[in-house]
Amino acid sequence: MSGRKKHSTPKGTVLVPLYVYPSPGAWDPLLTAITNHPRLKFTVVINPASGPGVEQGPDSNYTREIPKLNKHANVRTVGYVSTSYTNRNISLALRDIETYSAWSENSTIAGLGMQGIFLDETPSQYQAASAIFLDTLADSIISDTGFGKDPLIIHNPGTIPDSRYMKSANLTVVFEGAYSTYQMHGFHKTMTAFRDSSNAGRDALACIVHSLPSTLDESALVKDLRSSCGSVFITGLSGDYYASFWEGWLGFAIDMAA
């Protein structure tokens, strides 16, 4: 038999910056997508207070909702830690990591443990001091048993970074911005070129696109992103992008699961 070979869109993971406060029912759209698509993987960034907060554990709303996420086999939860482009006091970043790690040891509430850390505001331009900063955080995450085996370490420079930083992360967000910026600068080609030049696997890259126009064919965009990045998040919100779920959220999950 002869004929053209059909090329399928590569599978992807939904990367969710979950900065939605978990008042009752607020996380239901996420839980609906998770249960509707058990074969679709979700990486969920938990961010109680631009980090874990000053207390040893999160408040009662978080302790009620986080275990609902962690009970699903297709979900990995990671804790948010700011690095301020490695200008933050490293002891504070290490303390945040330690706090998240300790959640898994909560003796009264099971299922609070994180499976890694999302390091926000990581640099893109290489500096040796920044590399040491990020290596130190990675060593802390890997050595801390509270995150389990093979914890996920995510860098978010929000743009193409120097590839030397990638050795201390499993996943790097190589684009975070508005759809208009994504289109204007041809980031699809840029990401593909970076992947090839850095010898990074597709699964090592992530892309976050917000402010989608209402007339956009979202399915086509998702296919475009999945072809170059292993982890994807899109939203039509043009402000407070991660503080609520947009009306196209469940449709996006369907496109990612296709």
UniProtKB/TrEMBL annotation:
InterPro entries: Spherulin4 (IPR021986)
Top-rank taxon: Eukaryota
Pfam families in alphabetical order: Spherulin4
Name of the molecule in the record: Spherulin-4
